[in-house]
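Quick board copy: two proteins, each given as sequence then tokens.
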Amino acid sequence: MEMDLVVALKSPPIEPKVTFNSRIFYGLQKFGRAGLIALAAAALCCTDSEPAQAYKGGGPYGSEVTRGQDLTGKDFSGRTLNKQDFKTSILRQANFKGAKLLGASFFDSDLTGADLSDADLRGADFSLANAQKANLTNANLEGALVTGNTSFKGAVITGADFTEVYWRDDQRKDLCKVADGVNPITGNATRETLLCE
């Protein structure tokens, strides 16, 4: 056993087999940190300085961005904006009077004080939307989605049609306190479409 140890100590060290891949690995180890810094600097220098604009062309409104935007006071009256994406947008006092908004998404949008009178909102998504003090006079919201904490507190709903809109009981009861009128297009009474007692 002592002899084996003496022979092992006297023999020349075994050189590792050097291949192309091991040279790359060695180079990365030696220059890795500096290389990564250089790559990061090049990436910063060569990229656009403007941030990317999300969700261009979110519907028939063209190439303008309507999702996640501040569109306070914007006039959309009389426009055809079916399936338009207004998710998470600020639409305070926006004018949608007489607009066609079938299947449009107002998910988590702020519609405080917006004018939605005479609008065709069938199948629109108002989930988590804040439509407090909005004007929904004679609007058609048949089959609209109002899941979550959707709020229409203080909204004017005279003549609005809420057929097949599934409200939480507390939301429906609040709307029934102010519900009146008949929708001129569908002929449905607002109170009946809300299933008021």
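And the next:
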Amino acid sequence: MTIFLCTIALFSDLIIAYKSDNLDNELESRSFTNLAKRQEFTGDISFTNVENGKLGECEIPSTNNDLVCALSTEKFDKTLCGKKIKITRVTKSVTVTIVDRCEDCKLDDLTLTSAAFNQLGDPAEGVIKCTWDFLK
């Protein structure tokens, strides 16, 4: 009888551990970062002047000549620092690196350096609508 109860307890522990691992995997696959990497976004793209060598949230030095961006506060996560984003506007595109967070941006908006923005549009436009997605 004792062996039978120990066997049942062992199988119960294995089932609970299996379900726990599956739940952890499910939650990880639904995390914001993973969902963001599988989806295309549309937002307003603006540009800003960056002080030479400025360190943003990611602590990656950047200048106006670098192809870098800032993500909205809602999307920003330190694990995204250094990751690449491809931004497309009709037939033009640019790949930028995430180096900062944008406090004034709405959820799917980005702020670029002037060098990156110039590859998509004329600075006189100020703000342009583009699609973008995370690169793997």
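Board note added afterward: The two ends are 55 Å apart (CA to CA).
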